[in-house]
Amino acid sequence: GRLTMGSMGQFRPTRSATGDLLSATSMRLATFYSRSRKGRWCKGETSGHFIKVLSVHLDCDRDSLIYVGDPIGPACHTNAPTCYFTTLKREEDGKVREAGTHTSRAESPLPTLFALERIIADRRAQAAVEGAKPSWTAKLLSNPELLCSKIREEAGELCATWEEDEGRERTVSEAADLLYHAMVFLNHQGVSLEEVSATLRQRFAISGLVEKAARKK
Amino acid sequence: GRLTMGSMGQFRPTRSATGDLLSATSMRLATFYSRSRKGRWCKGETSGHFIKVLSVHLDCDRDSLIYVGDPIGPACHTNAPTCYFTTLKREEDGKVREAGTHTSRAESPLPTLFALERIIADRRAQAAVEGAKPSWTAKLLSNPELLCSKIREEAGELCATWEEDEGRERTVSEAADLLYHAMVFLNHQGVSLEEVSATLRQRFAISGLVEKAARKK
Ligand SMILES: [Zn+2]
Ligand SMILES: [Zn+2]
Ligand SMILES: [Zn+2]
Ligand SMILES: [Zn+2]
Ligand SMILES: [Zn+2]
Ligand SMILES: [Zn+2]
Ligand SMILES: [Zn+2]
Ligand SMILES: [Zn+2]
Ligand SMILES: [Zn+2]
């Protein structure tokens, strides 16, 4: 059947942790067809954990939707931030093992920079283990003067790939250096990549409904 | 039913654009149940556009999988890189309009930095339009000396947020500044964020099967 957007934004939630936010008329909330309830179900209508929809994308044969949104609270009924906290791994003997629990993000699928953010946090945690050989990441975290001098150095090295015409391979490598050291700095400052991403989304009006609604006011 | 990984890696494709790559025994290829064919279907077995699976994630109630993978060629039968090239937008009058075509990525859902990459490319294209007021992005692209001085400046400003104890809000803002200017630099050098991400994945052994297989050799 043809998909319509009729199921979006028509719910007036009766309770939520952030009531005034959800009563904004510009708000769209992720809504699904529930097979068990045999009807429309606005995620969050019982838990308060709504998902604010920023944009809706339809696939080529019109049988699948992606909601891009900001979750209000955990997305999963287990209180995990995502339902996909389990990884399937095949062992040497061909058997499938499951890894991951709803209390850890270690096995969730993540874009590369978010995975890197997690690795940096892991190395910070490992550094606290007695007798562990400190990683380069842990060394940088314990020495912010060194970290800052590396950030300045890598920024300069990135620029030099153009200034000295070193070629695009060097640009890739130096950009990776700079991103990594900037990510370690974010961990040191207790800042998440998501906060930086949210700032960029706001500055560049990325992803759609919320910013457009805001501009109208 | 309980999901198993039995459907992974059991296909030996008979033809492909990159035959030697696909004949590697460590390769896992994304495989689906096809309702129309009523059987297992290895995406790419007719088109050659396989998807190399890096990791497999299972949701909390075990009825949905995410494959994280590297596509070999376009993912969609329309030759688009993604099937989700259509955005649904609701107009003032409540009607739903569709935007996007399979030849453009403008409406595809993307992580923030990839969306920013696209915006930078758009501004570059707009700068070529006669009479258009050049954006700050276009100005930077036409003046790489300025761009490099900005990258060094923003790296210094990021470090200063710790050195001068300016607080985490400033760290978020300066990190956004630095990321934006580094992304403009990548565009100037003709380097994609995906190349930088791939380098980081390789360095940090992010996401899973492929790197692990490589380490065994
Ligand atoms: Zn489909
Ligand atoms: Zn869940
Ligand atoms: Zn659930
Ligand atoms: Zn260096
Ligand atoms: Zn470097
Ligand atoms: Zn499920
Ligand atoms: Zn498609
Ligand atoms: Zn500045
Ligand atoms: Zn700045």
Determine and state the CATH class of the largest domain in chain A: Mainly Alpha
Strand line-up in the sheet with most strands of chain A: 1-2
DSSP strand content of chain A? 5-15%
Q: Using the alpha-carbon principal axes, give the shape of chain A.
A: globular
How many strands in all of chain A?
6
| End-to-end gap of chain A | 36 Å
Structural class of chain A: alpha+beta
- CATH topology tier name of the largest domain in chain A: Helix Hairpins
Order of helices and strands of chain A: HEEEEEEHHHHHH
**In CATH terms, what is the architecture of the largest domain in chain A?**
Orthogonal Bundle
Present as ligands are: zinc ion
In the residues of chain A, how many domains can be counted?
3
Low-pLDDT residue spans of chain A: 1-26, 208-217
Largest sheet composition of chain A: 2 strands, antiparallel
User: What Rg of chain A, in angstroms, do the CA atoms define?
Assistant: 22 Å
SS element count, helices of chain A: 7
The CATH H-level superfamily of the largest domain in chain A is MazG-like
Q: What is the oligomeric state here?
A: homodimer
> Biggest interface, which chains?
A-B, 81 and 82 residues
Query: What share of the residues of chain A lie within helices?
Result: 40-55%
Q: What is the mean predicted local confidence, pLDDT of chain A? A: 81
Structure in words:
The structure is a homodimer of 217-residue chains. Chain A is an alpha+beta fold and 217 residues long. The first copy, chain A, folds into 3 domains: 53 residues, Phosphoribosyl-AMP cyclohydrolase (Ubiquitin-like (UB roll)), CATH 3.10.20.810; 31 residues, no CATH class; 92 residues, Helix Hairpins (Orthogonal Bundle), CATH 1.10.287.1080. Helix content of chain A is 41%, strand content 15%. Chain A is built from 7 helices and 6 strands, in the order H-E-E-E-E-E-E-H-H-H-H-H-H. In chain A, strands 1-2 form a two-stranded antiparallel sheet. In chain A, a hairpin with a 5-residue loop joins strand 5 and strand 6. In chain A, helix 2 packs across helix 5 and helix 4 packs antiparallel against helix 5. Chain A is globular. The N terminus and C terminus of chain A are likely disordered. The interface between A and B is large, with 81 and 82 residues. The structure holds zinc ion (9 copies). The site of one zinc ion has 4 residues of chain A, from loops.
